[in-house]
Design brief:
By secondary structure, the chain is α/β, with parallel strands linked by helices. It has a single domain, classed as Metal-dependent hydrolases (TIM Barrel). It contains 10 helices and 9 strands. The strands form 2 sheets. Strands 1-2-3-4-7-8-9 form a 7-stranded parallel sheet. A two-stranded antiparallel sheet has the order 5-6. Helix 1 crosses helix 2 and helix 6 runs parallel beside helix 8. The protein is globular and about 50 Å long. The termini are close together.
Length: about 270
């Protein structure tokens, strides 16, 4: 594990002062402070060092907001980390910082690109179904409109659900992120396309395979309806930003869902010693 949960003792007093002063000016930070006092661990498990953001700047943001971090590094075809050597080098570069270290597994090829012992260096692994190949052999990246093929909405959704449940059943991950994400062309029909049957298939697969479901602040997904069904089924959750640039934010949507869906401290994921 990269660190023992909590702030660096040398900066703890300073961090508490900074958080108190900032919280008075920002209601969401006040809410974070209240939740932590009530026993919640407020951790953004899906932070990135993107847009020039440094680890030092991320830690400064953490002190100001009271949010602790898991920092994720993208690994897979077309990403900076493509083999055991680059995976280990990344771990060695950041292992001494007081954050969790996450491997973000990209695409479906990643399972054959890295060895289990090197993957286990990281505190947890997550992935999504944003990259997959459809029944016609077309490899899609769902966040890129020009690479999405929707010949039939219902068929697309059925393929997507099959991909998600397949990932949960066969890939060694701890968190499923960007959960319930739909490509831009389908987003206006989110509520209609994410039927109860489809939600339950994903939720059941997550529970059966002990995989946490991310409440994503950037995309504001899954819906409260999904989260309530998942909680009732015994699922665990994580909070995450998936920042595309150097703005980390304050997990507003994730925090909102705690109250709206009645989530308790025990409903949340926490990494275990590998």
């Amino acid at each position: 594990m990269a660190f023992i949960y909590g702030c660096n003792p040398k900066s703890e007093k300073k961090a508490e002062t900074t958080q108190d002063e900032t919280a008075q000016q920002n209601p969401i930070l006040q809410k974070i402070a209240e939740l932590k006092e009530a026993g919640y661990e407020i951790i953004d498990y899906h932070g990135h060092l993107k847009g020039g953001l440094t680890m030092e700047e991320l830690l400064e943001h953490s002190e100001e907001t009271g949010i602790d971090y898991g920092v994720a590094f993208n690994a897979g075809v077309g990403f900076p980390i493509t083999d055991d050597s680059s995976l280990v080098a990344t771990y060695e570069e950041y292992k001494d910082y007081p954050v969790y270290l996450a491997m973000q597994a990209e695409g479906r090829e990643w399972v054959n690109m890295f060895s289990r012992d090197k993957i286990a260096l990281f505190d947890y692994v997550f992935t999504d179904a944003m990259t997959w190949t459809d029944s016609k052999g077309r490899r899609m990246r769902l966040w890129m409109p020009e690479e999405v093929f929707v010949d039939d909405k219902e068929d697309f959704m059925d393929q997507l659900i099959s991909k998600i449940t397949g990932i949960m059943e066969t890939e060694p991950i701890d968190i499923y992120v960007n959960s319930t994400f739909l490509p831009e062309v389908l987003q206006p029909e989110y509520d209609a396309l994410w039927t109860e049957e489809r939600m339950d298939k994903v939720i059941d697969a997550a529970v059966a395979n002990n995989i946490a479901i991310e409440i994503n602040a950037r995309y504001q997904i899954p819906s409260a309806t999904f989260i309530k069904r998942a909680k009732a089924a015994g699922a665990k959750f994580s909070m995450g930003t998936n920042n595309p640039a150097n703005e980390l934010g304050t997990l507003d949507y994730s925090i909102q869902m705690i109250d709206e869906c009645g989530l308790e401290p025990g409903d949340f994921f926490k990494p275990v010693q590998r």
